[in-house]
C-alpha cells in the first residue's frame, strides 16, 4: 500500500511545525526520516497515522484520503509512537491481546497473532511479566509487537531502536528490513548508521521542510560534489610535496597527515587522482597508497540542517 503526502502542513500557534511537505513511499520501501530535534518528524508521523488533525494538505493511503476515511485506514497502519504508551500494570500477553482486539483482529485469530508477535519480537521469556517490570528495550519490543499485531500494510515507527542494547538493535533492524520487503515502512531515527543499515531511501527534514530526499549515495554526491583523497607519498619532503599538490589546478586544499600521508580535497566536480599521480611521476615520488574517502552521512546531515 503506497503512501502519498501532499503539501502537508501543521501549525502550532505562530510556529509552522510542518511546512508544505510532499513525498511518496511505495510498497516494499523503507524510508528513513531524519532531522534535528524539533524538525517536525513526530508531527508528520502523527498526521500520517491520523493521531492529530491535518491543518492543510493531505495524506493518502492506497489512494484514499486519511481526512475522509481515517478510521477505516487506521486498520492498515501500525504505529510505534515516540513515547510508547504502555499499560504498566498489564502483563505482556494481556496487553497484546487487548491491542489486537482494539485493532479489530477477529477473536478467533487473536491467540495466533499474539503468539507470532511474541516469537517475532523475542518476547517469549518476558511474556508473563507486567510491562512495568520490563527493561526499556523489552518495552520497546512490546511497542513494536503492538504496532504489528494486526499485520498492517503500513508501519510508522518513531525512533524504533531507542533504548535497545547493541544486540537488540541489530535484531530489530533485521526484523524491520524483513518486514519492509512486503510492507511500506517509515521510520524516524537520530542514528545515521541506522538509516544506512536499514533504509532504502532517506528523507531529511529541517524546520518543517524537506531538505533532502534520496539514497545515502545520492545525498552524499549532492551534498558536496567534492572528492576527498588520502594518499601516502614517499621519497620527498612533506612540505615540498604539500606545496606541489596545493598548486595543482584540481586541488582545493591539502593537509599533511603525518607518516607520509596527505588528505587532498578536490575543487567542486573535479577529481585529483590523475593530477596527483602525474605530479609524483614527474618528481620521482612514490605513491604507496591512494584511497578515496567517502563523505560521511553525518557531514551531509550537518551541511543540510546546521
Ligand atoms: N502539541 C504541541 N504544541 C505546540 N508545539 C508543538 C506541539 N507538538 C510539537 N510542537 C512543536 O513542533 C515542532 C516539531 O516538533 P516534533 O516533535 O514534530 O519534532 P521532531 O522532529 O519529532 O523532534 P525530536 O527529534 O526532538 O523528537 C517543535 O518545535 C515542537 O516544539
UniProtKB/TrEMBL annotation:
SMART domains: AAA (SM00382). It holds the Pfam family ABC_tran. Gene3D superfamilies: P-loop containing nucleotide triphosphate hydrolases (3.40.50.300). It comes from the Bacteria. Residues 3-232 form the ABC transporter domain. Keywords: ATP-binding, Nucleotide-binding, Transport. GO terms for molecular function: ATP binding; ATP hydrolysis activity. The keyword Transport applies. The keyword Transport applies. Belongs to the ABC transporter superfamily. This is ATP-binding cassette domain-containing protein. It comes from Fulvivirga lutea.
Amino acid at each position: 500500500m503506497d503512501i502519498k503526502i501532499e503539501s502537508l502542513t501543521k501549525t502550532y500557534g505562530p510556529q509552522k511545525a510542518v511546512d508544505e511537505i510532499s513525498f511518496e513511499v511505495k510498497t516494499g520501501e523503507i524510508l528513513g526520516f531524519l532531522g534535528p530535534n524539533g524538525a517536525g518528524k513526530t508531527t508528520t508521523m502523527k498526521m500520517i497515522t491520523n493521531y492529530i488533525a491535518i491543518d492543510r494538505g493531505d495524506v493518502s493511503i492506497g489512494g484514499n484520503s486519511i481526512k475522509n476515511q481515517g478510521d477505516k485506514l487506521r486498520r492498515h497502519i501500525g504505529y510505534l509512537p515516540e513515547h510508547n504508551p504502555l499499560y504498566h500494570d498489564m502483563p505482556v500477553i494481556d496487553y497484546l491481546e487487548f491491542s489486537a482486539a482494539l485493532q479489530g483482529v477477529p477473536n478467533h485469530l487473536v491467540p495466533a497473532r499474539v503468539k507470532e508477535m511474541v516469537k517475532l519480537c523475542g518476547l517469549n521469556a518476558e511474556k508473563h511479566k507486567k510491562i512495568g517490570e520490563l527493561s526499556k528495550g523489552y518495552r520497546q519490543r512490546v511497542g513494536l509487537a503492538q504496532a504489528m499485531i494486526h499485520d498492517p500494510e503500513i508501519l510508522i515507527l518513531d525512533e524504533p531502536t531507542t533504548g535497545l542494547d547493541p544486540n537488540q538493535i541489530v535484531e530489530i533492524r533485521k526484523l524491520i528490513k524483513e518486514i519492509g520487503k512486503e510492507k511500506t515502512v517509515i521510520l524516524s531515527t537520530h542514528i545515521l548508521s541506522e538509516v544506512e543499515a536499514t533504509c532504502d531511501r532517506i528523507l531529511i527534514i529541517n524546520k518543517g521542510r524537506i531538505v533532502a530526499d534520496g539514497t545515502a549515495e545520492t545525498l552524499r554526491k549532492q551534498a558536496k560534489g567534492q572528492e576527498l583523497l588520502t594518499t601516502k607519498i614517499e621519497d620527498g619532503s612533506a612540505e615540498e610535496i604539500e606545496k606541489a599538490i596545493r598548486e595543482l589546478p584540481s586541488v582545493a586544499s591539502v593537509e599533511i597527515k603525518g607518516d607520509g600521508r596527505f588528505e587532498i580535497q578536490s575543487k567542486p566536480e573535479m577529481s585529483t587522482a590523475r593530477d596527483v599521480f602525474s605530479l609524483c611521476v614527474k618528481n620521482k615520488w612514490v605513491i604507496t597508497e591512494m584511497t578515496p574517502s567517502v563523505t560521511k552521512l553525518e557531514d551531509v546531515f550537518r551541511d543540510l540542517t546546521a
